[in-house]
Amino acid sequence: MATLSIRLPDSLHRHLKDLAKKEKVSINQLVSTAVAEKMSALMTEDYLEVLARQGDRAAFDRVLAKVPSGPPDPWDRWKAE
Question: Would residue 45 count as lying in a domain?
Fold first, then answer.
């Protein structure tokens, strides 16, 4: 396991400490989880961009053309509440 030293403003450190206490985890665990969540979001965006570049618009249009036109079934209709 690696060690990382970071400098935080006092106010951010104080909020981090309070939140960790509220969540009943260590500051290290809270920071590790936050970093993992952010990395996951960024990596997912990159992954989806790669998949999008592999898409074939003509193939999509061919599949979409097979969908019958007409109103949706009653259970598929969006209802404003």
Answer: yes
User: What's the burial of 16, exposed, middle or buried (CB within 10 Å: 0-12/13-18/19+)?
Assistant: middle
* Three-class SS state of 72: coil
Give the residue carrying structure tokens 């003509």: 58
Average pLDDT over residues 35-39: 96
Classify residue 8: in a domain, yes or no. no
What the block records as the tokens of 41 is 């979001």
Which residue range is the domain that position 38 belongs to?
24-67
- Given a contact cutoff of 8 angstroms between Cβ atoms, the answer to whether 17 and 28 are in contact is no
pTM, two decimal places: 0.59
